[in-house]
User: Fold this.
Amino acid sequence: MALLTVSNLEKKFGGVTAIAGLDFQVDPEIIFAIIGPNGAGKTTLFNLLTSIYQPTTGTVTFDGHDLTRLKPFQIAELGVTRTFQNLQIFLNMTVLENVMVGCHLRSRCGIIEAALRLPSVIREEKQVREMAMEALDFCGMSELADRDAASLPYGMLKKLEVARALAAKPRMLLMDEPAAGLNDTETIVMSSLIRDISRSGITVLLVEHNMGLVMDVSDRVLVLNYGELLSQGTPQEVQCDPRVIAAYLGE
Ligand SMILES: Nc1ncnc2c1ncn2[C@@H]1O[C@H](COP(=O)(O)OP(=O)(O)OP(=O)(O)O)[C@@H](O)[C@H]1O
Ligand SMILES: [Mg+2]
Assistant:
């Protein structure tokens, strides 16, 4: 059974239709890529899946829950987390602190308990630290835990963004252009990290312009064009689809 079902999804911004009546399903534990030219609606789709935007019409069902009725933090609690096309890293914090931000939705203590430093708070802080370290370790970054985020090269910041999204222990991870701006070596590292995430049982939705990476790691590919589903299938099927070639080459 599908883990994610998108039905008749539409998002209009005034006169611009960013997502135009989209239907698709994602099976659990696969790498599902969403590609398409600039402005095709990929990031808007992620923003709809995480309730940053409300759809004009349509539904998004994750594991039986209608996500469009939930707040972003409730969607994260259900097990859907994401990375951002524009890095959302706190440069004035350490690497570990940045990842700990990703665990906060699992924390149960309120402000008063925290201010009083109750034993429950200290226990929980230790747990959060451990979860964050686990995520950093998974991304091969545990030795950088105490470094200032600002001191990391761009490629590491992109991985830090992934570590933070993993720290909340998602069942589905949305990655918006994880390889953008990376050099060839960093791209290989990122593609192997994406595979590792998938092997650990997390369903991956991948938005990416690097076609080599997409065709290499994905189980299925959906092509968006002007907010519409242009094509869908295995990487080989999509690559051979004349409509896809035309959309990319502008014919
Ligand atoms: N908040 C917004 N207000 C108005 N228009 C928007 C908004 N967000 C996106 N759009 C428009 O919706 C369309 C889809 O944009 P979106 O950012 O989803 O594209 P994309 O596929 O992610 O592109 P890229 O590959 O360049 O990241 C574009 O025409 C864009 O200008
Ligand atoms: Mg985008």
